[in-house]
Structure formats: C-alpha cells, structure tokens
Amino acid sequence: MPHCQCAIPVFEGLLPPDHNEIVLDLLFNLATWHAYAKLCIHTDDTLAFFDSVTVILGQSVHKFQHTICAYYHTTEIPNEYTAHGRPEATLASKQAGSANTLQRSNPNPKVKTLNIFTYKYHALADYPNTIQRVGTSDSYSTQPVSDIFVVLSILHLIFYRENLNIIDPSASTPTQARRKIQCYSVSPLKKLKNSSLRK
Fold first, then answer.
1. How many domains does one find in the chain?
2. Which residue has the higher pLDDT, 177 or 23?
3. Which residue segment(s) compose the domain that 24 sits in?
C-alpha cells in the first residue's frame, strides 16, 4: 500500500484534468483495495466493504482502459526494444555470416496496451470470498515458508558440512537457497550450534 499512496502525488497534474481525475481515482481505488486485502483481521462489515471496493476497482480499471488507454499510443521502452532485437541479431549473424548487414524484422517498437484478460486481474474478485472461506491472506502466504526454507538450508550446510563430513553438501541445496545463504551472517548460527553441542 505505501507504493500506491506515494504514487498519487507523483501522478497528480501530469495529464489533462479529465484524464488526471480518472488516473487518480484508479490509484486511490487500488490503494483502498490493497489495504482491505492486507488486513490481518476481517469482520463481516470489512468483507462487505472489501467486496464493494472490488466492484468499484473493476469499474475504475475498465474506465481507465476505455478512456486513457484508447487515447494514448504506448510502445515498449528503448531497453525492451533493444532486448528483443538481440536474439534476432544473433540468429541473423549465425545464418548469414558477418559480411551481411543485419536488419530487424520489425523496425518499430511493439505497441503495448493494458491487458485485463489475465488470471491476476480475474482473481481480484475472488479475494473477499477466499478470505471469508480460508482466512486472511497472511495465513496462507508463501513468504513464511520461504524464510523457513532459507534457515533450514543454512542449518543443513553448517551441521552436515562440519559435523558429518559430507563431501559435497551444496550439491543437494538449491541454487537460490545458496545465494540467500551468502547474504546471511553465519556466526550467530555457529554460536547456536556450539551451545547445542555442549548440552
């Protein structure tokens, strides 16, 4: 939610007044929806408000798409355009050799539009019902599981490498976990290990 709150003053006044009002309403509705989605405790009233805010958000997105997106011609940014050209250039250089000049199949950047036909947008309407059936979103988030996995990976490396003398324990640890392990300080865990071995 802090990102949506900070975005409102940034976008204010960038567009003509009638377009500006639509964009600011959309940002406000997104921030309101996000606040309801992240509540840790819900009542029947907050779920009813959340349901109505979801309907209002859908109306805001459709209004944004039909007015703002239809009015402005948007294309991919230069970094995206050059990134799409690299594979074509590599393929052309392999096929034709270095003597020929390389030409892109599409010399213009791709047109970018708002795509609301995605699962992520479609699933917004399911949040209030899901919270009512399953509980708040913090109770089934994958973040705590990810954090526990990192701690267990650290413990795996410490205990197995130093105590059981396994030749290559890192081979069984996923690459992502090894990268996260490098960010953590191991010294507090060594103290924990030493104190647990003394008992």
1. 2
2. 23
3. 2-74+113-138
* Residue 90 domain flag: no
Whether residue 49 lies inside any domain: the answer is: yes
> 128 near 51, Cβ under 8 Å?
yes
Cα 49 to Cα 36: distance, rounded to the nearest angstrom? 8
Q: Which sign, positive or negative, has the C-alpha torsion 144, 150, 154, 157?
A: positive
Task: Say if residues 74 and 112 touch (Cβ distance below 8 Å).
Answer: yes
Q: Which residue is it, tokens 């230069």? A: 78
User: Based on the domain organization, do 66 and 149 belong to the same domain?
Assistant: no
Is residue 80 in a domain?
A: no
Q: Is residue 23 part of a domain?
A: yes
95-109 confidence digits (pLDDT tens): 765 444 455 566 788
Eight-state DSSP code of residue 105: S
Percentage of the residues of the chain whose pLDDT score is greater than 70: 61
Asked whether the beta carbons of 20 and 36 are under 8 A apart, the reply is no
What's the chain's average pLDDT? 75
Whose CA is closest to 55, among 28, 33, 38, 40?
33
58 and 127 both lie in a single domain: yes
